[in-house]
């Protein structure tokens, strides 16, 4: 689709007389045809990237996010100095790098993000999810929940509601409780930027029933990401069934060793995701 963009005309223009004084004549604006931005496309995240070369290749192919495992117990984990180079490569090619955490505390997550030079943290384990309330807002949070084989989400959503309710009851109790203000600013963080729905065993490559998946509306600022067993062959059907904001792939585009990325699989996955997205538009 083409959109018209108005460009200011040159300052030198003909003039006419108005009451004996020359008055400038406003020239008609130039209309230039430019490609309209497709704001409804499904974004793509390639995760478990271990080298700058794989990051560059995926980003050039069209990946919007490059995920790096910073949890040391994963087979795709990389040290912080390597992650810094991967992040630099991703950014240079126009993609957003994301650090993946499992057991780390808020302090460890912030320190790792600062060392690597990233501002997106994927909270993939219980401890990392618990760290959300202590993460500064400068860290964009990708909050991971798990879905069972039938597509039912089995992980609690962000926010310790029981604790928040107890705090409010305490503040509002007593004779002067009616005057007590609820501190929404300094309370624990509950805001997340992305919700990512994965299978119960993350990274296993096992799928679940996408048709039965029900993602709560308004639970994140930017949308939700579908993960779990995606590959070049099924990503189109997954997008058609769920209509996620983004899709996430790791093992589905890995080579035979299961760590490095297979360029042909990466290209096919991204092309099929973008194609399915265009068909929905």
Report the biggest beta sheet as strand number plus sense, adding barrel if it closes. Answer: 8 strands, parallel, barrel
Walk across the major sheet and give the strand order.
Answer: 5-6-7-8-9-10-11-12
Bin the helical content.
25-40%
Query: How many helical elements?
Result: 7
Low-confidence stretches: 1-38, 182-186
The termini sit apart by 12 Å
**SSE series:** EEEEEHEHEHEHEHEEHEH
DSSP, total strands: 12
Name the features.
281 residues, alpha/beta, eight-stranded parallel β-barrel, two-stranded antiparallel ribbon, 7 helices, disordered N terminus
Can you offer a commentary on this structure?
With 281 residues, the chain is of the alpha/beta class. 27% of the residues lie in helices and 21% in strands. It has seven helices and twelve strands. The strands form three sheets. The chain has an eight-stranded parallel barrel, surrounded by five helices. A two-stranded antiparallel ribbon has the order 1-4. It has a two-stranded antiparallel ribbon with strand order 2-3. The longest helix has 18 residues, at 263-280. It is globular, with a radius of gyration of 24 Å.
Short description:
By secondary structure, the chain is α/β, with parallel strands linked by helices. It has helices spanning 52-61, 80-92, 106-116, 126-130, 161-172, 235-242, 263-280, and strands spanning 2-7, 15-18, 21-24, 30-35, 43-46, 65-69, 96-101, 120-123, 140-147, 194-199, 224-226, 246-249.
């Amino acid at each position: 689709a083409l959109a018209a963009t108005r460009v200011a005309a040159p300052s030198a223009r003909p003039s006419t007389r108005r009451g004996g004084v020359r008055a400038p004549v406003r020239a008609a604006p130039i209309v230039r045809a430019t490609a309209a931005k497709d704001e409804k496309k499904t974004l793509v995240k390639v995760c478990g990237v271990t080298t700058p070369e794989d990051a560059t290749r995926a980003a050039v192919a069209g990946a919007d996010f490059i995920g790096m495992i910073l949890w040391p117990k994963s087979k795709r984990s990389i040290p912080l100095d390597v992650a810094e180079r991967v992040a630099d490569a991703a950014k240079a090619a126009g993609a957003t790098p994301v650090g993946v955490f499992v057991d780390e505390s808020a302090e460890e997550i912030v320190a790792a993000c600062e060392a690597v030079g990233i501002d997106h943290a994927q909270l993939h384990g219980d401890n990392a999810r618990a760290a959300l309330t202590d993460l500064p807002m400068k860290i964009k949070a990708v909050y991971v929940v798990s879905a069972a084989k039938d597509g039912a989400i089995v992980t609690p959503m962000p926010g310790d509601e029981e604790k928040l309710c107890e705090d409010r009851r305490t503040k509002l109790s007593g004779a002067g409780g009616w005057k007590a203000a609820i501190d929404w600013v300094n309370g624990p963080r509950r805001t997340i930027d992305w919700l990512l729905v994965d299978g119960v065993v993350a990274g296993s490559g096992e799928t679940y029933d996408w048709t039965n998946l029900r993602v709560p509306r308004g639970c994140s600022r930017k949308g939700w990401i579908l993960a779990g067993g995606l590959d070049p062959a099924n990503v189109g059907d997954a997008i058609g069934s769920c209509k996620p904001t983004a899709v996430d792939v790791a093992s589905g585009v890995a080579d035979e060793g299961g760590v490095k990325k297979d360029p042909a699989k990466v290209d096919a996955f991204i092309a099929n995701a973008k194609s399915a997205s265009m068909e929905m538009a």
